[in-house]
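Section 3.1: Structural characterization of target chains.
Under the original work plan, the team committed to producing a structural model for every single-chain target entering the pipeline before any wet-lab resources were allocated. The record below documents one such target. The sequence was received from the expression subgroup and is listed exactly as submitted; it comprises 363 residues.
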Amino acid sequence: MKDNEELYFLFLRKKAGLTIEEENVLIADLLLNDPSARQLWDQINSDPYGVFENSDKEKAWEKLLPRVINRRKAKINYLKYAAAACLLVLAGTFLYLFTGNKTNRITDKTLLKGNYIVFSDSSYIDLSSYTKDSPPPLESLMAEGPGPASVVVRNISSAGFLLGDGSRLLLHPGATFTTTLPSGGGIRQGTITGEGFFEIAGNAKVPFILTVGKTTVKVLGTKFAVVNLGSISKVALASGAVLVTTPADSIVLKPGQQSTLNTNNHLDITAYTEVEMEAMENGFTYFHDQPLSDILTTIYLKYGITVKLDTYLPTGRHFSFPIHDRTEVEMALEAVIKTFGLEATLQVYQVKDTFHITTIGRK
C-alpha cells in the first residue's frame, strides 16, 4: 500500500462501487496483466483497509467503509463569484459608511450559533448564515469593527471566504485566521492556526503574506494548502510558486512539493500524494501509519473532541484511515478498538465533547 497508495485507493473505491466507467476499464486491465495489482486486490478483499497487522478484518470497518471512501467534495467555481464579491465589497463599504454604528456586531458570545469573527474590542459577528458554498466577502465584514480581527471556524465543517480581488480562503474545522483590514486596500496578509486551502489572485506589487507558526509564506498568485496543528507546520503547493521562509531556511516550492518544519527550524521538502492533497484541500484528516497517541492529539486539535483511555491499550500499533468530519470520529474509534482483539470487551461512550474508551462494566 505504501508504495502504491493511489492504486490502493482506486481499488477501495471499486469495492465500494464508486468508480466510473474509465476507471473500471483500467482496473480490469490491471487485474489481467499486473500480478502485483492482483495481489493488492486480493489483500483488499480479505481486509478492506489493510492497515492493521492483526486486525479484526472487515468487521471493524463495515460501518465506516461506505462513508469514508472517496467522499470528494464538490469544488467551487471561484471565478464565478469574483465579480459578485467585488460588488458585495463595494456595497458593504457603502452601507458601512452610511449606517454609522449600526452593524451586525454582538457582545454576548453565547448568542453565536456557528463560525464567527471576533474583533479587538471583543465584539463578534455571527457567520452561521453563510455556508462553504456561499462564501461571504471578508473585507466588508472586517470593516464592521476594529482590527485586528480573527475569523474562527468551529469544529464542525469547513468555511469559505472571498476577498475583493477574487482570492478565496477555505478554512477547515478548528481553524483561526487573523488579519487586519488595511486602509484603502484589500487583505493581503494574515496568520493561520489549524488548516486551510488558499487560492490567491496574482498581484506582483502586493504579495500575499501568510504566517504559519514559525513559517512565513510569500505568494504572488497560486493555490496552496497549509497545516498548523500542534507541532506540525506544513505548506503544500498545488500550483504556481510560493516562497517559504523559516528562521533557518528560505525555499521556493514547486507544484507537487510540500515543506514540513522540523525540530531544528529547517524545512524538509517532500512530494505529496494525490490523497494527501485531497485531504488538505477538502478538510478531512488522513491518518497514515500513525500511533494512537498522535491520532488522539489531532482529533482534539481539529475537532475539539477529547478522547480519554479509561483502560490500558497495548502500545506500538500504527493506524491508517480517513475521517471526513466530526460525525465520523466515534465510528472510527469503534473500528480502531476492535482491532486490539483483547479478551475484555471495550466500548466507546460520549459525555459532552469527550469520548471515553473503557472496558464494559467500568463505565
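The chain is about 25% helix and 30% strand.
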